[in-house]
Amino acid sequence: MHAVESLRLPARLENLAALRQLALAAAARAGLAPEAAKRLDLVLEEALANIVHHAYADREGDVELACGVPAAGRVCLTLTDWGPPFDPLHVPDPAQEGRLQANREAGMDARAPGGLGLFLIRSMAEAGYRRVAEANELTLCIGP
Q1: Which CATH number do you get for residue 50?
Q2: pTM of this prediction?
Q3: Range of the domain at 99
């Protein structure tokens, strides 16, 4: 496994570009196919936006991104935030799950805001979640 690179920044929209750049550099080192690199970027952007908008809705906080290349053609990202516990892989609210399904089936003009990011995260990457001490850790892997 290659060394893991990480970056911790305030969880603000203006910092998304620097975090995405770190992940895309890892994708390039891994030799990730262009389509897979686009998927990685999209999933990362959705997860980061969720952290910015929801983990720290009423306060400031940080997000940390760790990027690893466990094998050629494979990248694993770990996003850490110190917001309230939230597992994006298991939505506990059945009504929210229904909204996700409705958004998947609706046309672009009929979609309700929000919810599609969770679907993208779940369907476009191998994802894992765990709560460690006071932190949420979301791992996203792309590649074989």
Answers
A1: 3.30.565.10
A2: 0.82
A3: 5-142
